[in-house]
Amino acid sequence: MAKNDPGPLTFSTFHNVINNELTSTAQSRHGINPPNKKPNPAVRVSTQEDLNRAVTAAQQAFLSWSKIPVGERRTAIYEFANGIEANKDMFAKMLTAEQGKPLSQATTEVEMAVHWARTIPTIEIPITVLEESDEHEIIERHTPMGVVGAIVPWNFPVLLAVGKIVPALYTGNTIILKPSPFTPYCDLKLAELAIQYFPTGVFQALSGDNDLGPIMTEHPGIDKISFTGSILTGKRVMASCAKTLKRLTLELGGNDPVIICDDVDIDAIIPTIGVLSFLCSSQICMMIKRLYVHEKIYDEFRDKLAKHVQDLKVGEGTRPDTFIGPVQNSMQFDKAKDLFDSLSSEGLKPVPTLVDNPPDNSRVVVEEPFAPILPLLKWSDENDVIARANDSQTGLGASVWSSDIDRANRMALQLQAGSVWVNSHFQVAPNVPFGGHKASSIGMEWGLTGLLGYCNTQSLWLKKK
Fold it and tell me: Which top-level enzyme class is recorded in the Swiss-Prot or TrEMBL entry (predicted)?
Protein backbone atom coordinates (compact mmCIF):
# COMPACT_ATOMS: atom_id res chain seq x y z
CA MET A 1 0.00 0.00 0.00
CA ALA A 2 2.83 2.41 0.86
CA LYS A 3 4.92 3.90 -1.94
CA ASN A 4 8.24 4.15 -0.06
CA ASP A 5 10.64 1.38 0.89
CA PRO A 6 13.42 2.49 3.27
CA GLY A 7 15.32 -0.78 2.88
CA PRO A 8 16.50 -3.14 5.66
CA LEU A 9 15.83 -2.02 9.23
CA THR A 10 18.97 -1.26 11.25
CA PHE A 11 19.22 -0.28 14.91
CA SER A 12 22.28 1.98 14.86
CA THR A 13 20.76 5.35 13.90
CA PHE A 14 17.41 6.79 14.94
CA HIS A 15 15.26 9.48 13.38
CA ASN A 16 11.86 11.07 13.61
CA VAL A 17 9.40 9.89 10.98
CA ILE A 18 7.35 12.70 9.40
CA ASN A 19 5.26 12.03 6.31
CA ASN A 20 7.12 8.74 5.71
CA GLU A 21 10.52 10.47 5.70
CA LEU A 22 13.36 10.04 8.20
CA THR A 23 14.00 13.51 9.57
CA SER A 24 16.47 15.21 11.87
CA THR A 25 16.36 18.24 14.15
CA ALA A 26 18.80 20.90 15.27
CA GLN A 27 19.09 19.39 18.72
CA SER A 28 19.62 15.82 19.85
CA ARG A 29 19.78 13.92 23.11
CA HIS A 30 20.33 10.31 24.13
CA GLY A 31 18.83 7.76 26.48
CA ILE A 32 20.78 5.75 29.01
CA ASN A 33 21.44 2.01 29.15
CA PRO A 34 20.08 1.40 32.69
CA PRO A 35 22.53 -1.18 34.14
CA ASN A 36 25.78 0.48 32.99
CA LYS A 37 24.54 4.08 32.57
CA LYS A 38 26.29 4.32 29.21
CA PRO A 39 24.66 6.53 26.57
CA ASN A 40 22.50 4.93 23.92
CA PRO A 41 22.55 6.47 20.41
CA ALA A 42 21.42 10.02 19.72
CA VAL A 43 17.75 10.77 19.10
CA ARG A 44 15.99 13.93 17.98
CA VAL A 45 14.58 16.71 20.19
CA SER A 46 11.42 17.72 18.35
CA THR A 47 10.08 21.26 18.26
CA GLN A 48 6.69 22.88 17.75
CA GLU A 49 7.55 23.21 14.06
CA ASP A 50 8.23 19.48 13.77
CA LEU A 51 4.91 18.70 15.40
CA ASN A 52 3.09 21.18 13.16
CA ARG A 53 4.51 19.46 10.07
CA ALA A 54 3.48 16.06 11.37
CA VAL A 55 -0.04 17.22 12.23
CA THR A 56 -0.52 18.76 8.79
CA ALA A 57 0.63 15.53 7.15
CA ALA A 58 -1.62 13.45 9.43
CA GLN A 59 -4.65 15.62 8.68
CA GLN A 60 -4.07 15.31 4.96
CA ALA A 61 -3.54 11.55 5.19
CA PHE A 62 -6.71 11.14 7.24
CA LEU A 63 -8.85 12.32 4.33
CA SER A 64 -7.90 9.26 2.28
CA TRP A 65 -6.95 6.69 4.96
CA SER A 66 -10.36 7.01 6.66
CA LYS A 67 -12.05 6.12 3.36
CA ILE A 68 -9.95 3.03 2.64
CA PRO A 69 -12.03 -0.14 3.15
CA VAL A 70 -11.51 -1.71 6.55
CA GLY A 71 -10.28 -4.93 4.95
CA GLU A 72 -7.40 -3.10 3.27
CA ARG A 73 -6.48 -1.35 6.51
CA ARG A 74 -6.53 -4.74 8.23
CA THR A 75 -4.20 -6.21 5.61
CA ALA A 76 -1.71 -3.36 6.00
CA ILE A 77 -1.66 -3.91 9.77
CA TYR A 78 -1.09 -7.65 9.31
CA GLU A 79 1.90 -6.89 7.07
CA PHE A 80 3.20 -4.47 9.71
CA ALA A 81 2.90 -7.26 12.32
CA ASN A 82 4.92 -9.55 10.04
CA GLY A 83 7.57 -6.85 9.79
CA ILE A 84 7.85 -6.58 13.56
CA GLU A 85 8.14 -10.34 13.84
CA ALA A 86 10.87 -10.46 11.18
CA ASN A 87 12.88 -7.97 13.25
CA LYS A 88 11.95 -9.50 16.62
CA ASP A 89 15.47 -10.23 17.83
CA MET A 90 16.74 -6.73 17.05
CA PHE A 91 13.72 -5.12 18.71
CA ALA A 92 14.25 -7.28 21.82
CA LYS A 93 17.96 -6.43 22.08
CA MET A 94 17.25 -2.73 21.69
CA LEU A 95 14.46 -2.95 24.25
CA THR A 96 16.82 -4.46 26.81
CA ALA A 97 19.41 -1.78 26.05
CA GLU A 98 16.98 1.10 26.54
CA GLN A 99 14.57 -0.26 29.18
CA GLY A 100 16.83 -2.59 31.17
CA LYS A 101 14.47 -5.57 31.38
CA PRO A 102 15.97 -9.04 30.87
CA LEU A 103 16.26 -10.15 27.26
CA SER A 104 13.78 -13.00 27.78
CA GLN A 105 11.17 -10.54 29.05
CA ALA A 106 11.95 -8.13 26.20
CA THR A 107 11.46 -10.93 23.67
CA THR A 108 8.12 -11.79 25.27
CA GLU A 109 7.02 -8.16 25.01
CA VAL A 110 7.82 -8.01 21.30
CA GLU A 111 6.01 -11.31 20.71
CA MET A 112 2.98 -9.94 22.58
CA ALA A 113 3.06 -6.84 20.40
CA VAL A 114 2.93 -9.02 17.28
CA HIS A 115 0.01 -10.98 18.74
CA TRP A 116 -1.84 -7.75 19.59
CA ALA A 117 -1.26 -6.42 16.06
CA ARG A 118 -2.69 -9.59 14.54
CA THR A 119 -5.64 -10.01 16.88
CA ILE A 120 -7.10 -6.52 17.36
CA PRO A 121 -7.97 -6.13 13.65
CA THR A 122 -10.03 -9.33 13.81
CA ILE A 123 -12.55 -7.57 16.07
CA GLU A 124 -15.53 -6.43 14.03
CA ILE A 125 -16.85 -2.93 14.73
CA PRO A 126 -20.63 -3.20 14.76
CA ILE A 127 -23.16 -1.27 12.73
CA THR A 128 -26.48 -1.49 14.56
CA VAL A 129 -29.90 -0.96 13.02
CA LEU A 130 -31.89 0.78 15.75
CA GLU A 131 -35.15 1.24 13.87
CA GLU A 132 -36.47 0.37 10.45
CA SER A 133 -39.75 1.22 8.75
CA ASP A 134 -41.07 1.67 5.24
CA GLU A 135 -39.97 5.31 5.35
CA HIS A 136 -36.60 5.27 7.09
CA GLU A 137 -33.77 3.34 8.70
CA ILE A 138 -31.90 4.54 11.79
CA ILE A 139 -28.37 3.22 12.14
CA GLU A 140 -25.77 3.57 14.88
CA ARG A 141 -22.26 3.46 13.47
CA HIS A 142 -18.74 4.39 14.57
CA THR A 143 -16.52 6.72 12.57
CA PRO A 144 -12.84 7.66 13.02
CA MET A 145 -11.98 10.79 14.95
CA GLY A 146 -9.04 12.16 12.95
CA VAL A 147 -5.48 12.61 14.22
CA VAL A 148 -4.52 10.63 17.33
CA GLY A 149 -1.61 11.62 19.56
CA ALA A 150 -0.25 8.55 21.38
CA ILE A 151 1.98 9.12 24.41
CA VAL A 152 3.79 5.93 25.45
CA PRO A 153 5.50 5.12 28.80
CA TRP A 154 8.94 3.66 29.45
CA ASN A 155 8.03 0.35 31.10
CA PHE A 156 6.47 -1.47 28.09
CA PRO A 157 7.32 0.82 25.16
CA VAL A 158 6.80 -1.74 22.39
CA LEU A 159 3.58 -3.43 23.50
CA LEU A 160 1.92 -0.25 24.72
CA ALA A 161 2.85 1.59 21.52
CA VAL A 162 1.44 -1.17 19.32
CA GLY A 163 -1.61 -1.28 21.61
CA LYS A 164 -2.35 2.31 20.54
CA ILE A 165 -1.07 2.26 16.94
CA VAL A 166 -3.14 -0.70 15.77
CA PRO A 167 -6.55 0.38 17.17
CA ALA A 168 -6.05 3.92 15.89
CA LEU A 169 -5.13 2.84 12.36
CA TYR A 170 -7.62 -0.01 12.14
CA THR A 171 -10.49 2.35 12.98
CA GLY A 172 -9.40 4.76 10.24
CA ASN A 173 -7.47 7.39 12.21
CA THR A 174 -3.94 8.61 11.60
CA ILE A 175 -1.46 8.63 14.47
CA ILE A 176 1.53 10.56 15.81
CA LEU A 177 3.53 8.56 18.34
CA LYS A 178 5.50 10.19 21.15
CA PRO A 179 7.79 7.75 22.96
CA SER A 180 9.00 8.31 26.50
CA PRO A 181 12.27 10.30 26.58
CA PHE A 182 13.69 7.37 28.57
CA THR A 183 12.84 4.73 25.92
CA PRO A 184 12.50 6.29 22.45
CA TYR A 185 14.44 3.78 20.36
CA CYS A 186 12.10 0.86 19.61
CA ASP A 187 9.16 3.19 19.06
CA LEU A 188 11.06 5.23 16.48
CA LYS A 189 11.95 1.99 14.72
CA LEU A 190 8.30 0.93 14.69
CA ALA A 191 7.51 4.10 12.78
CA GLU A 192 10.45 3.62 10.43
CA LEU A 193 9.34 0.05 9.77
CA ALA A 194 5.80 1.26 9.08
CA ILE A 195 6.97 3.34 6.10
CA GLN A 196 6.91 0.09 4.12
CA TYR A 197 3.27 -0.64 4.92
CA PHE A 198 1.24 2.57 5.30
CA PRO A 199 0.64 5.61 3.09
CA THR A 200 2.45 8.87 3.81
CA GLY A 201 1.32 10.67 6.94
CA VAL A 202 -0.68 7.76 8.38
CA PHE A 203 1.84 6.76 11.08
CA GLN A 204 4.48 9.21 12.30
CA ALA A 205 6.72 9.39 15.37
CA LEU A 206 8.49 12.24 17.13
CA SER A 207 11.02 11.90 19.91
CA GLY A 208 11.66 14.71 22.33
CA ASP A 209 12.20 15.85 25.88
CA ASN A 210 9.61 16.61 28.54
CA ASP A 211 8.37 19.65 26.60
CA LEU A 212 6.94 17.68 23.68
CA GLY A 213 4.02 16.07 25.54
CA PRO A 214 2.35 19.35 26.58
CA ILE A 215 2.78 20.72 23.06
CA MET A 216 0.96 17.65 21.70
CA THR A 217 -1.88 17.72 24.22
CA GLU A 218 -2.57 21.41 23.48
CA HIS A 219 -2.23 21.20 19.70
CA PRO A 220 -5.57 22.13 18.08
CA GLY A 221 -4.95 19.81 15.11
CA ILE A 222 -4.83 16.65 17.25
CA ASP A 223 -8.30 15.21 17.86
CA LYS A 224 -7.59 12.56 20.51
CA ILE A 225 -4.85 11.80 23.03
CA SER A 226 -4.18 8.27 24.26
CA PHE A 227 -1.86 8.49 27.27
CA THR A 228 -0.35 5.81 29.48
CA GLY A 229 1.60 6.96 32.53
CA SER A 230 1.33 8.19 36.09
CA ILE A 231 -1.81 9.55 37.75
CA LEU A 232 -0.15 12.92 38.38
CA THR A 233 0.81 13.35 34.73
CA GLY A 234 -2.56 12.02 33.62
CA LYS A 235 -4.30 14.83 35.49
CA ARG A 236 -2.10 17.35 33.67
CA VAL A 237 -2.86 15.70 30.33
CA MET A 238 -6.59 15.84 31.02
CA ALA A 239 -6.41 19.53 31.97
CA SER A 240 -4.40 20.30 28.85
CA CYS A 241 -6.79 18.41 26.57
CA ALA A 242 -9.71 20.34 28.02
CA LYS A 243 -8.43 23.52 26.36
CA THR A 244 -9.43 22.15 22.94
CA LEU A 245 -12.03 19.61 24.15
CA LYS A 246 -9.96 16.70 22.85
CA ARG A 247 -11.16 13.17 23.30
CA LEU A 248 -8.79 11.24 25.51
CA THR A 249 -8.01 7.87 27.01
CA LEU A 250 -5.93 7.74 30.18
CA GLU A 251 -4.32 4.52 31.41
CA LEU A 252 -2.76 5.43 34.74
CA GLY A 253 -1.32 3.88 37.89
CA GLY A 254 -2.50 1.03 40.05
CA ASN A 255 -1.98 -0.34 43.54
CA ASP A 256 -3.28 -3.85 42.94
CA PRO A 257 -4.51 -5.79 45.99
CA VAL A 258 -4.25 -9.59 46.12
CA ILE A 259 -6.13 -11.65 48.70
CA ILE A 260 -4.61 -15.02 49.67
CA CYS A 261 -7.06 -17.29 51.47
CA ASP A 262 -6.06 -19.80 54.13
CA ASP A 263 -6.86 -22.85 51.97
CA VAL A 264 -4.31 -22.27 49.19
CA ASP A 265 -1.50 -24.66 48.33
CA ILE A 266 1.33 -22.38 49.48
CA ASP A 267 4.17 -24.23 47.77
CA ALA A 268 2.26 -24.39 44.49
CA ILE A 269 1.47 -20.67 44.23
CA ILE A 270 4.61 -19.06 45.70
CA PRO A 271 6.57 -19.14 42.39
CA THR A 272 3.65 -17.56 40.53
CA ILE A 273 3.12 -14.90 43.19
CA GLY A 274 6.84 -14.13 43.05
CA VAL A 275 6.79 -13.61 39.29
CA LEU A 276 3.61 -11.53 39.40
CA SER A 277 5.08 -9.30 42.10
CA PHE A 278 8.55 -8.67 40.67
CA LEU A 279 8.35 -9.07 36.88
CA CYS A 280 10.12 -6.19 35.12
CA SER A 281 11.46 -5.09 38.54
CA SER A 282 7.82 -4.45 39.56
CA GLN A 283 7.67 -1.58 37.06
CA ILE A 284 4.26 -2.61 35.73
CA CYS A 285 1.02 -0.90 36.68
CA MET A 286 -0.74 -4.25 37.14
CA MET A 287 1.85 -6.03 39.25
CA ILE A 288 0.84 -7.27 42.71
CA LYS A 289 1.32 -4.23 44.97
CA ARG A 290 -0.51 -5.17 48.21
CA LEU A 291 -0.51 -8.81 49.31
CA TYR A 292 -3.17 -9.67 51.91
CA VAL A 293 -2.40 -13.10 53.42
CA HIS A 294 -4.71 -14.90 55.82
CA GLU A 295 -3.34 -14.88 59.35
CA LYS A 296 -3.50 -18.69 59.65
CA ILE A 297 -0.84 -19.10 56.94
CA TYR A 298 0.83 -15.69 57.11
CA ASP A 299 4.17 -16.63 58.70
CA GLU A 300 4.74 -19.69 56.51
CA PHE A 301 3.71 -17.82 53.37
CA ARG A 302 5.94 -14.82 54.18
CA ASP A 303 9.01 -16.95 54.89
CA LYS A 304 8.63 -19.08 51.77
CA LEU A 305 8.00 -16.05 49.55
CA ALA A 306 11.06 -14.30 51.03
CA LYS A 307 13.18 -17.37 50.26
CA HIS A 308 11.84 -17.52 46.71
CA VAL A 309 12.49 -13.81 46.12
CA GLN A 310 16.04 -14.09 47.45
CA ASP A 311 16.72 -16.80 44.84
CA LEU A 312 15.61 -14.60 41.92
CA LYS A 313 18.67 -13.57 39.92
CA VAL A 314 19.46 -9.85 39.85
CA GLY A 315 21.70 -8.38 37.16
CA GLU A 316 22.05 -6.99 33.65
CA GLY A 317 19.30 -7.97 31.26
CA THR A 318 21.73 -9.53 28.80
CA ARG A 319 22.62 -12.30 31.24
CA PRO A 320 20.53 -15.38 30.48
CA ASP A 321 19.51 -16.14 34.09
CA THR A 322 18.56 -12.59 35.11
CA PHE A 323 15.01 -12.10 36.35
CA ILE A 324 15.23 -8.71 38.08
CA GLY A 325 17.03 -6.00 36.13
CA PRO A 326 17.67 -2.41 37.18
CA VAL A 327 15.08 0.22 37.94
CA GLN A 328 14.79 1.93 34.57
CA ASN A 329 15.81 5.52 35.36
CA SER A 330 17.24 7.68 38.12
CA MET A 331 13.95 9.51 38.67
CA GLN A 332 12.14 6.27 39.45
CA PHE A 333 15.07 4.98 41.51
CA ASP A 334 15.01 8.09 43.70
CA LYS A 335 11.26 7.67 44.25
CA ALA A 336 11.73 4.02 45.20
CA LYS A 337 14.65 4.83 47.51
CA ASP A 338 12.62 7.53 49.26
CA LEU A 339 9.78 5.07 49.81
CA PHE A 340 12.16 2.39 51.07
CA ASP A 341 13.79 4.88 53.46
CA SER A 342 10.36 5.62 54.91
CA LEU A 343 10.20 2.06 56.25
CA SER A 344 12.83 2.88 58.85
CA SER A 345 11.19 6.14 59.92
CA GLU A 346 7.84 4.35 60.28
CA GLY A 347 9.39 1.49 62.24
CA LEU A 348 8.63 -1.15 59.60
CA LYS A 349 10.55 -4.35 58.85
CA PRO A 350 11.66 -5.37 55.36
CA VAL A 351 12.22 -9.11 54.71
CA PRO A 352 14.32 -8.54 52.41
CA THR A 353 12.38 -6.55 49.81
CA LEU A 354 9.09 -7.63 51.39
CA VAL A 355 7.59 -5.47 54.12
CA ASP A 356 6.26 -7.45 57.08
CA ASN A 357 2.64 -6.53 58.00
CA PRO A 358 2.80 -2.72 57.85
CA PRO A 359 -0.16 -0.57 58.97
CA ASP A 360 -2.77 0.13 56.32
CA ASN A 361 -1.96 3.85 56.42
CA SER A 362 1.79 3.46 55.89
CA ARG A 363 3.29 4.90 52.72
CA VAL A 364 4.35 1.49 51.41
CA VAL A 365 0.68 0.40 51.44
CA VAL A 366 -0.93 3.63 50.27
CA GLU A 367 1.53 4.55 47.50
CA GLU A 368 2.38 2.63 44.33
CA PRO A 369 6.08 1.70 44.61
CA PHE A 370 6.68 0.89 40.91
CA ALA A 371 9.82 -0.83 42.18
CA PRO A 372 10.54 -4.19 43.87
CA ILE A 373 9.04 -3.33 47.27
CA LEU A 374 6.04 -5.43 48.36
CA PRO A 375 3.98 -5.12 51.58
CA LEU A 376 2.46 -8.28 53.08
CA LEU A 377 -0.56 -7.73 55.33
CA LYS A 378 -2.49 -10.06 57.62
CA TRP A 379 -6.25 -10.58 57.43
CA SER A 380 -8.82 -12.78 59.14
CA ASP A 381 -12.32 -11.50 58.25
CA GLU A 382 -13.55 -11.74 54.66
CA ASN A 383 -15.64 -8.56 54.65
CA ASP A 384 -12.86 -6.62 56.33
CA VAL A 385 -10.16 -7.63 53.85
CA ILE A 386 -12.40 -6.79 50.88
CA ALA A 387 -12.98 -3.32 52.36
CA ARG A 388 -9.23 -2.89 52.91
CA ALA A 389 -8.46 -4.04 49.37
CA ASN A 390 -10.96 -1.54 47.97
CA ASP A 391 -9.70 1.30 50.19
CA SER A 392 -7.58 2.96 47.52
CA GLN A 393 -7.88 5.84 45.08
CA THR A 394 -6.86 3.40 42.34
CA GLY A 395 -8.70 0.43 40.88
CA LEU A 396 -6.68 -1.14 38.10
CA GLY A 397 -6.37 -4.85 38.93
CA ALA A 398 -7.14 -7.19 41.83
CA SER A 399 -7.26 -10.91 42.50
CA VAL A 400 -8.37 -13.59 44.96
CA TRP A 401 -6.56 -16.89 45.48
CA SER A 402 -8.37 -19.88 47.03
CA SER A 403 -8.92 -23.58 46.43
CA ASP A 404 -12.63 -22.95 47.05
CA ILE A 405 -13.72 -21.50 43.71
CA ASP A 406 -17.18 -20.47 44.95
CA ARG A 407 -15.57 -18.53 47.79
CA ALA A 408 -13.02 -16.93 45.50
CA ASN A 409 -15.63 -15.94 42.91
CA ARG A 410 -17.88 -14.48 45.62
CA MET A 411 -15.02 -12.32 46.92
CA ALA A 412 -13.85 -11.36 43.41
CA LEU A 413 -17.27 -9.96 42.53
CA GLN A 414 -16.88 -7.41 45.33
CA LEU A 415 -13.49 -6.01 44.26
CA GLN A 416 -13.40 -2.56 42.70
CA ALA A 417 -11.04 -2.79 39.73
CA GLY A 418 -11.07 -2.79 35.96
CA SER A 419 -9.62 -6.31 35.81
CA VAL A 420 -10.29 -8.94 38.49
CA TRP A 421 -8.86 -12.46 38.43
CA VAL A 422 -9.32 -15.66 40.41
CA ASN A 423 -6.16 -17.68 41.11
CA SER A 424 -4.17 -15.56 38.67
CA HIS A 425 -3.11 -11.96 38.12
CA PHE A 426 -1.91 -9.73 35.29
CA GLN A 427 -3.61 -11.76 32.58
CA VAL A 428 -4.20 -9.53 29.56
CA ALA A 429 -5.36 -10.20 26.01
CA PRO A 430 -5.83 -8.04 22.90
CA ASN A 431 -9.55 -8.92 22.66
CA VAL A 432 -10.25 -8.08 26.33
CA PRO A 433 -10.76 -4.45 27.44
CA PHE A 434 -7.96 -3.13 29.65
CA GLY A 435 -8.34 -0.22 32.03
CA GLY A 436 -9.23 0.72 35.55
CA HIS A 437 -11.75 2.25 37.91
CA LYS A 438 -11.39 5.36 40.04
CA ALA A 439 -8.12 7.23 39.40
CA SER A 440 -6.61 4.37 37.39
CA SER A 441 -8.28 5.10 34.08
CA ILE A 442 -10.45 7.26 31.88
CA GLY A 443 -11.73 4.96 29.17
CA MET A 444 -10.36 1.56 28.17
CA GLU A 445 -7.84 0.15 25.71
CA TRP A 446 -8.09 -3.05 23.62
CA GLY A 447 -11.06 -5.21 22.86
CA LEU A 448 -14.15 -3.77 21.21
CA THR A 449 -14.52 -1.19 23.99
CA GLY A 450 -10.98 0.02 23.34
CA LEU A 451 -11.57 0.25 19.59
CA LEU A 452 -14.69 2.34 20.11
CA GLY A 453 -12.57 4.74 22.15
CA TYR A 454 -10.92 5.74 18.87
CA CYS A 455 -14.29 6.40 17.21
CA ASN A 456 -17.09 8.91 17.23
CA THR A 457 -20.54 7.37 17.55
CA GLN A 458 -22.95 8.54 14.87
CA SER A 459 -26.73 8.16 14.63
CA LEU A 460 -27.54 7.97 10.93
CA TRP A 461 -31.15 8.62 9.79
CA LEU A 462 -31.61 7.33 6.25
CA LYS A 463 -34.72 7.91 4.16
CA LYS A 464 -36.21 5.13 2.07
CA LYS A 465 -38.73 7.28 0.23
Answer: oxidoreductase
